[in-house]
Amino acid sequence: MRSQVLRRCRLQSIDLQKALSGVDYPADRDHLVGAARDNNAPDGVVNALSEPSEEGYETPAGVSKAVFSHS
Fold first, then answer.
1. pLDDT of residue 70
2. Distances 9 to 22, 23, 26, 33, 37 between C-alpha atoms, Å
3. 40 vs 12, which has greater pLDDT?
């Protein structure tokens, strides 16, 4: 659990923006993870996108909220 918190602390909003460049919303979690991989995002970003329980997101702000508030 502690390593997840530390990893999330190092993750910044700009990392998500870069990883999700070109994504059309609404988008589901699998699409976001795939886009991050296609954009060569670091593993920490891909893992962070995989963790939230929400299945879909209407906006980039919704993704950020889910990633940064997930505990």
1. 65
2. 25, 24, 26, 19, 21
3. 40
